[in-house]
Q: What sequence folds into this?
């Protein structure tokens, strides 16, 4: 594992709302987030869960600076962000190796060191042997792992992860969980992790924000008090069942506007 450069980071949202304006008609505007406030400290691992359309991806895009909030304020400190998108956005014209190298080139890492780092992450992602393939030659799960390798290799201070393991098969996902925990522990990053998977939301984060249906608001914040270091054995911890129930109750609790559906 290559050590990170551990810059301090913090993310502060103060009464942030986000409306997507319809080009045709104001009545079709979408209020994605309403008065969202939180602080995420340096090296914290925060999970975000909530129904589809409640603004989870919007939050990550606001942190990444892809969007400006309609109202409210966002303060970011030292957050050199890496983003693992819900669907990998590998460059189709670059090989797996070239894709992973890209972030390193942007960071000015020397060519020789780039190769060492890329080899390390190819190994960790179990993609050795696929370095010279193009994304379309890989399965969806392998493409996603290449996207993870690219984000991890660039060693950002803050990792934004949007349902990053959805397309990865169950067995490999266990490996991905333990790898992320290992990277987070050793490289001391801040992680903002969006997931639909309740087990993932308990196994990985320090705290979980449970969002209401649209407009997304934080309904509940659940501290995940499982001891660290964690592994899949943590799922056998007696406290795990309590946390799972708390998370499910929070997700399915009726909100005032009754927009939360049980489908999630
Ligand atoms: P989630 O990730 O929780 O599923 P999103 O943040 O993607 O939710 O979207 C929140 C809401 O905002 C959804 O209703 C979605 O349709 C809408 N939305 C997201 N992006 C845009 C956009 N660029 N233009 C218009 N509406 C959008
Ligand atoms: Mg989303």
A:
């Amino acid at each position: 594992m290559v050590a990170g450069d551990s810059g301090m980071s913090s993310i502060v949202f103060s009464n942030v709302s986000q409306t997507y304006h319809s080009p045709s008609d104001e009545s079709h505007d979408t209020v994605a987030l309403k008065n969202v406030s939180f602080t995420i400290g340096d090296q914290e691992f925060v999970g975000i869960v909530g129904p589809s359309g409640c603004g989870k991806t919007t939050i990550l895009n606001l942190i990444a600076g892809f969007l400006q909030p309609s109202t409210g304020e966002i303060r970011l400190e030292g957050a050199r962000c890496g983003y693992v998108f819900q669907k990998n956005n590998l460059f189709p014209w670059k090989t797996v190796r070239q894709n992973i190298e890209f972030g390193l080139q942007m960071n000015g890492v020397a060519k020789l060191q780039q190769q060492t780092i890329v080899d390390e992450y190819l190994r960790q992602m179990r993609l050795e042997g696929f370095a010279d393939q193009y994304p379309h030659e890989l399965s969806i799960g392998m493409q996603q792992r290449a996207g993870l390798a690219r984000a991890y290799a660039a060693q950002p201070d803050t990792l934004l992860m949007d349902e990053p393991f959805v397309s990865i098969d169950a067995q490999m996902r266990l490996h991905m969980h333990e790898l992320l925990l290992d990277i987070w522990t050793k490289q001391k990053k801040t992680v903002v992790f969006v997931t639909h998977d309740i087990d993932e939301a308990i196994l990985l984060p320090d705290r979980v924000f449970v969002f209401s249906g649209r407009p997304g608001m934080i309904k509940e914040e659940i501290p995940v008090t499982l001891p660290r270091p964690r592994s899949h054995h943590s799922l056998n911890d007696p406290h795990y069942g309590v946390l799972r129930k708390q998370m499910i109750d929070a997700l399915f609790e009726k909100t005032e506007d009754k927009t939360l559906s049980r489908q999630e």
User: Anything to note?
Assistant: The pocket of magnesium ion (ligand 2) is lined by residues 56-57, 86, 162 (CB under 6 Å). The CA atoms of residues 122 and 223 lie 33 Å apart. The beta strands are 10-20, 30-40, 45-49, 71-77, 81-84, 158-162, 190-194, 207-211, 218-223. The chain has seven helices and nine strands.
